Amino acid sequence: MTAADRRAVETLVTLRDVLRYAVSRFRAAGLAHGHGASDAYDDAAFLVLEGLDLPIDRLEPFLDARLLPEEREKLVGLVAARVETRKPLPYLLGRAYIQGFRFRVDERVIVPRSFIGEILFSDGFAGDETGLVPDREAVETVLDLCTGSGALAILAAHLFPNATVDAVDLSQDALAVAALNVAEHGLADRVSLHRGDLFAPLAGRRYDLILTNPPYVDAEAMAALPAEYRHEPVMALAGGEDGLDIVRRILDAAPDHLTETGGLLCEIGTGREILEADYPDLPFLWIDTEESEGEVFWLAAADFEPR
């Protein structure tokens, strides 16, 4: 810890003090955000709340709480580590959140942040007679391709109470982290992890719902990634020259793995125009979120040509 860090430990008193300090340090350092936080303030709020094991969505009640010396030292140390290493905070803290659910993470997996999490729990997607999945209880089989930490598979298991969920990844390291999360959520009897290349380990099984947030960063963007993103596994990000190599493989194989009433929900990043040009006969339904537009599509089994 530097002399400046030590002065901060000795001077800062309340959680509000540390929050302000963190925002200032993060802005001055020009950090990149996007691993569950959209700006320096959100990053700082996550640091103080998770760093002190406080409820992740309740900052206000604690702002003027006085911190113990060891708490100040821990938080100032995390601020310094965030600035000096450029590691995303979920790696430094070992935790990430989607839709209020907590997941273990480390550098063996991409930090979970898929827009699919928001869509799954949005009004009109599942559990509404006008939604894409009108009856949550009727969903019996779900597949999460490129599962990483297992976050989407676990969210699906919580959302669809009668479903068994298969989760696939090529990385044994990622599956080790996913196994920790499955166990922590008490879902070992409903979520099965498989190592392999996309559909290969699934022996022709069909699913009511396929979820996937595959690697989709194109070569140009990979070359210009901020330092924060370079801490993540390359295989979880790189999607080929135009970012859509794996997405194409999923589209080509998905019809053989969907039930008659099933559907595919897939995140692709910014390649919408390319994908629509490559597959002019597929009626992609693009589902927007608060922070994304044209990055996640839905296709029903009936949208594909019969095989």
Helices, strands, pairings?
Blueprint: H1 3-11, H2 15-29, H3 40-51, H4 69-85, H5 89-93, E1 95-98, E2 101-104, H6 115-120, E3 141-145, H7 151-159, E4 164-169, H8 172-184, E5 191-195, E6 207-212, H9 219-223, H10 245-253, E7 258-267, H11 272-278, E8 285-286, E9 296-300
Parallel strand pairs: 3-4, 3-6, 4-5, 6-7
Antiparallel strand pairs: 1-2, 7-9, 8-9
Descriptive notes:
It is a single chain. With 307 residues, this protein is of the alpha/beta class. The protein has two domains: 3-93, Helicase, Ruva Protein, domain 3 (Orthogonal Bundle), CATH 1.10.8; 99-303, Vaccinia Virus protein VP39 (Rossmann fold, 3-Layer(aba) Sandwich). Helix content is 35%, strand content 15%. The strands form two sheets. It has a seven-stranded mixed beta sheet with strand order 5-4-3-6-7-9-8, with helices on one face. Strands 1-2 form a two-stranded antiparallel ribbon. A hairpin with a 2-residue loop joins strand 1 (95-98) and strand 2. Helix 1 (3-11) packs antiparallel against helix 4. The longest helix has 17 residues, at 69-85. It is elongated and about 70 Å long. It starts with a helix and ends in a 7-residue tail after the last strand. The mean pLDDT is 95.
Oligomeric description of these chains: single chain
Spatially, the strands of the biggest sheet line up as 5-4-3-6-7-9-8
CATH architecture of the largest domain: 3-Layer(aba) Sandwich
List low-pLDDT spans: none
Mean pLDDT: 95
What is the top-level CATH class of the largest domain? Alpha Beta
| Count of discrete alpha- or pi-helical segments spanning 4 or more residues | 11
